[in-house]
Design brief:
Keywords: S-adenosyl-L-methionine, Transferase, tRNA processing. With 210 residues, this protein is α/β, with parallel strands linked by helices. Helices cover 32% and strands 15% of the residues. α5 packs antiparallel against α6.
C-alpha cells in the first residue's frame, strides 16, 4: 500500500492541520531565537507561532557569531527588547508590560514604543547554553513568566516541571497584554495538534472523542 506524502508545512500524513491554525493580530512582537536543532524537529511549536501571529519572526542562533537579523530588529527606533529567560536580574512579564504601558502613556503615537519579546526556542538545556552565549543581548531586560497552570505539552520526553513549550510561552505573553481569547485559540490548536500528531505517527486517522 502506498502512503500519501506528508504535508510540507505541518509534516502530517493522514490529517493536515494547516487550515486550523488561528490567525491572530498581536499587539506585541515575538522574536524566536531558534537553536539550529529546532529546524529539524517536527515537535517544534515555534513554527505554529510563526504561522498564527502577524507579528512574529524567527532568527537562527549562531554559536560563534551574533544573529544579524535579530540585532537589526531590536535596534529599530522605539523598540524595547526583552529576553524571556529567568535570572537574578529578571523581572516579571507583568512588571515589564506595565513599565512599557506607563511609557506609552507619556508618548505621542509617532514615538510609540514597540515591545519585542525574545524567546529562546530549543530544549531547556539548549536554551540555557544559548543564554550564556549571547553577550550581544546583554542590554536586554530579562523577564520571567509565572504561568497559572502546568504545561500540557506532551511531544517530548524529560520535560522539567514548570517549563512551557514555545507556543505556550507565546500564549502566556498574549494573556499578559489582555488577549485571553487569542491565547486560548493557540492552546486549543496545540492540544488538537498533539492528538493528531500521536494518531498520525501511529498510522491512523485522528477521531475526536465524543
Amino acid at each position: 500500500m502506498t502512503h500519501p506524502a506528508p504535508c510540507l508545512r505541518c509534516h502530517l500524513t493522514l490529517h493536515c492541520v494547516c487550515d486550523l491554525i488561528p490567525q491572530i493580530k498581536s499587539p506585541i512582537h515575538i522574536a524566536l531565537l531558534m537553536h539550529e536543532n529546532e529546524l529539524r524537529r517536527e515537535t517544534n511549536t515555534g513554527q505554529w507561532l510563526l504561522a498564527a501571529l502577524d507579528q512574529c519572526s524567527s532568527h537562527v542562533w549562531q554559536r560563534k557569531s551574533p544573529t544579524a537579523s535579530l540585532i537589526e530588529l531590536i535596534k529599530q527606533p522605539n523598540v524595547v527588547p526583552m529576553l524571556l529567560f529567568p535570572s537574578e536580574q529578571s523581572i516579571s512579564a507583568e512588571e515589564a508590560i506595565a513599565n512599557i504601558q506607563q511609557k506609552k502613556a507619556g508618548l505621542d503615537k509617532s514615538s510609540e514604543t514597540i515591545p519585542v519579546f525574545i524567546i529562546l526556542d530549543g530544549t531547556w538545556q539548549e536554551a540555557k547554553k544559548m543564554a550564556n552565549k549571547i553577550p550581544w543581548l546583554d542590554g536586554c531586560q530579562h523577564i520571567h513568566l509565572s504561568p497559572d497552570s502546568r504545561s500540557h505539552y506532551q511531544l517530548r520526553r524529560n520535560q522539567a516541571d514548570g517549563h512551557l513549550c514555545t507556543l505556550e510561552v507565546g500564549a502566556e505573553l498574549l494573556k499578559k497584554v489582555g488577549k485571553e481569547k487569542e491565547a486560548a485559540q493557540l492552546n486549543e490548536f496545540l492540544n488538537h495538534y498533539m492528538n493528531v500528531f500521536h494518531a498520525d505517527k501511529c498510522g491512523h486517522q485522528y477521531r475526536a472523542s465524543k
